[in-house]
């Protein structure tokens, strides 16, 4: 058998969906290579992440300490929200070591949580609208800024409606002007964006229950030390 690395032998790969809705659907796709040593070097990992085509692919370099290496199809990332949530759930570890820093993790019933610092997240334009219906009605904006469009569904309860538009260039370093996304059918829009949820929570200074995209759910909570917890449901799709 030939693995996804192009060498003999199967690749130890799990595929997850992270930030699923209450029905278990939607969320963002994540590939986790449990044996990172099977794909040594940034060039080989980048090539595999590109060929797998998941929103992100994580290479586990130490499954006891939780040392991880995160790639989009075109770019290595020091930190990303949904890859950390999904990998911590899969490995059942209390922390992950990313290039950005140590991400603590916990399980709470059906939700998997991580704690991270807002400054680790890429910059986003957080654009508030007057109502959830306005967010629902938005067309994909013209190429330009990475926009996280949001509105209160219920401000007292911390319920937010959000959509994410990467614009011309996102953290993957590629054009997002067309194609298929995680759940909505168009890569003009990201279905579930943990980093943007982290930034919005830090900006508002309160816990949020975010409904993003076609049906994903992201929960957040700020901590007194400036870190933010981000949590959601994780589903194992298959090897």
Uncertain stretches of 5 or more adjacent residues: 4-8, 169-186
Q: What is the succession of H and E elements? A: EEHEEEHEEEEHEEHEEE
Q: What is the C-level CATH assignment of the largest domain?
A: Alpha Beta
* Strand elements, count: 14
**CATH fold name of the largest domain:** Diaminopimelate Epimerase, Chain A, domain 1
Percentage beta strand: 35-45%
Q: Which architecture of the largest domain per CATH?
A: Roll
Output the keywords:
Phenazine_PhzF-like; 14-stranded mixed beta sheet; Diaminopimelate Epimerase, Chain A, domain 1; alpha+beta; 2 domains; PhzF family phenazine biosynthesis protein; globular
Q: What's the gist of this structure?
A:
The chain is an alpha+beta fold and 239 residues long. It is built from 4 helices and 14 strands.
Written overview of the protein:
- Pfam families: PhzC-PhzF.
- This is PhzF family phenazine biosynthesis protein.
- InterPro entries: Phenazine_PhzF-like (IPR003719).
- It comes from Streptomyces cavernicola.
- This protein has 239 residues and is of the alpha+beta class.
- It folds into two domains: 13-102 and 234-238, Diaminopimelate Epimerase, Chain A, domain 1; 120-233, Diaminopimelate Epimerase, Chain A, domain 1 (Roll), CATH 3.10.310.10.
- Helices cover 16% and strands 37% of the residues.
- The chain has four helices and 14 strands.
- Strands 1, 2, 3, 4, 5, 6, 7, 8, 9, 10, 11, 12, 13 and 14 form a 14-stranded mixed β-sheet that branches.
- It is globular, with a radius of gyration of 17 Å.
